[in-house]
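Before going further, learn to read the protein records used in this course. The integers have meaning only within a learned vocabulary of local backbone shapes. To see the layout at work, look at the sequence and tokens printed below.
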Amino acid sequence: MNDTVSRMPLTVRMRRSPFFARSHAAGAQGYIVYNNMLIATDFEGAEADYRHLKRAVQLWDVGCERQIEIAGPDALKLVQLSTPRDIRRIADDQCVYIPTVDGDGCMTNDPVLVKVADDRYWVSIADSDQILFYKGVAAALKLNVSVFEPEVAPLGIQGPNADALVARVFGEAATRIGFFRHTRVDVDGTPMILARSGYSLQGGYELYFEGGDGSVLWERLVDAGQDLDVKAGSPCQAERVEGGLLSYLSDITPDMTPFEAGLGRFCHLDADTGCLGLAALRAKREPVRQVRPIEIDGDALPPMTAFWPLTSADGAPAGRVSSAARSWSYGLNIGIALVDRAHWDAGVALRVVTSEGERDARVLSGFPGRGSA
């Protein structure tokens, strides 16, 4: 066994996904625990994994993106109580990004909602105990629903060659689904949901795998993608930071509203959706701090193990940096920062207090991975 894993206090509380064995065997150099699951990461080094993701195709064991299944006559009502996004008219084949909030309008998660059927939804969560929110509200309101965690483990197929790989394994028709839409594909005789989605900006899919062992499917994808340079991978810090993909409990914290997280476009406050935090969000729609991209001067940054304080050029508190990484494609250090209103305009000079000293920084007009900086 890999020495890193053998030194960890492994218990039954650290679950493995159906793809863990294959992901681990592919040469993982690091591991994280996420939603009580052990996930393999860092395969050929940060820069090598980053560059490979941008040119080829990777298989990601993201089984830690646990599903909360909400099923029954009141399923739509319960999901809508948790989010200010109006989901009443989403299509049968649609999956949508939803900020979820508490009664004070503060973020409890930022999941993807998958409509499985009219009375059945999967809430694909970030690292949290969001299931307790749904169970508590359902019990308090005596809703006619069941709330539980099904045996579903997403597998990411990410990168520019993802379309070619999916076409070979699941058929050409599977590649014709639109962004954040899903279809059913055959996996050894079982129809499973394949969505055009994923935690990168390189394009790709997530297969919502239902089963106990994903080894056969993993090997089939590897065999089919040899000439496409398919390799094991994992969500890439540098790629997601340069693209502005936020991480719950890092860039989004439970004291923030969707407006502070830059997610106001997903808050439909004029509709009486029934969201528990609707009144609070209507009172908080003008934030005094908000997530912004920043450029940080200097060489490669030290690892982050805590928020880095952000100050104005004259030393006044200006916010915090929650994620930062070297963007090798753009030759910049990019940070995701929660910046006070007085300092959040593009071009404003700032100072970042890193774990290895202060550095000059400035607010960018956009994340470079999205085509602006």
